[in-house]
């Protein structure tokens, strides 16, 4: 405890937003909230990822809270067409990828009304790339009897700028899924608290 206090004392003072975060973390971690926030670089994203990987009681409670927040957003996506709730889609994906130090590829499977049927992480990669296999994406789309998809992946580098490989992958998936009458409505790139929509940028 002495080490944590010394470390906290030598750190710059928390700003108002950071103090609100620490106060919100106290019900989960008690007196350790300050030290844990500092240990995760004052990043709620990193702390969220740590919570999902740990079985410790405080982390487990926080992970449960995050899961409930995702389900709240998911509930909105299952009752209304996704394009009526673009903010909910982006928030849902940001929450899923929060603090994740590796790339992964996910899909939201949608019905003919463009409401959510299922959400799945399909591929997991390294810090800078993920291998995506269109055949497996098609298989999962058929499994869910989906009429459309929103695909997404994260950039741990912090940049939302899509690479040429991202654009080629999107085009390949579009072409393959068209063969089974499934539309790709959007490809969302998530980097921390920011996201980029291919559809909004005219890349789809």
Automatic annotation (TrEMBL):
Q: A Pfam family for this UniProt protein?
A: RadC
Similarity field: Belongs to the UPF0758 family.
- Its recorded name reads DNA repair protein RadC
Q: Matching InterPro entries, A to Z?
A: MPN, RadC_JAB, UPF0758, UPF0758_CS
Source species, domain of life:
Bacteria
Q: Does the keyword Metal-binding apply?
A: yes
In this chain the MPN domain maps to 82-204
CDD domains xrefs: MPN_DUF2466
Show the Gene3D superfamilies listed in the entry. Answer: Cytidine Deaminase, domain 2
PANTHER family assigned to the protein according to its UniProt record, in alphabetical order: DNA REPAIR PROTEIN RADC, UPF0758 PROTEIN YEES-RELATED
Q: What UniProt keywords are attached to this protein's entry? A: Hydrolase, Metal-binding, Metalloprotease, Protease, Zinc
């Amino acid at each position: 405890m002495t080490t944590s206090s010394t470390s906290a004392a030598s750190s710059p003072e928390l700003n108002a937003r950071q103090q609100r975060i620490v106060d919100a973390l106290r019900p989960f971690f008690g007196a350790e909230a300050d030290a844990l926030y500092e240990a995760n670089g004052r990043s709620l994203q990193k702390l969220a990822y740590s919570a999902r990987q740990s079985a410790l009681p405080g982390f487990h409670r926080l992970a449960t809270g995050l899961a409930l927040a995702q389900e709240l957003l998911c509930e909105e996506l299952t009752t209304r067409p996704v394009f009526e709730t673009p903010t909910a889609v982006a928030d849902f994906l940001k929450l899923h990828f929060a603090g994740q130090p590796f790339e992964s590829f996910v899909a939201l499977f949608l019905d003919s009304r463009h409401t959510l049927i299922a959400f799945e992480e399909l591929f997991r990669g390294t810090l800078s790339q993920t291998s995506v296999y269109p055949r497996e994406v098609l298989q999962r789309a058929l499994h869910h009897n989906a009429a459309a998809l929103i695909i997404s992946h994260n950039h741990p580098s912090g940049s939302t700028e899509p690479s040429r490989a991202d654009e080629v992958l999107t085009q390949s998936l579009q072409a393959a899924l068209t063969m089974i009458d499934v539309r790709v409505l959007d490809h969302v790139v998530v980097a921390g608290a920011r996201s980029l929509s291919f559809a909004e940028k005219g890349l789809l």
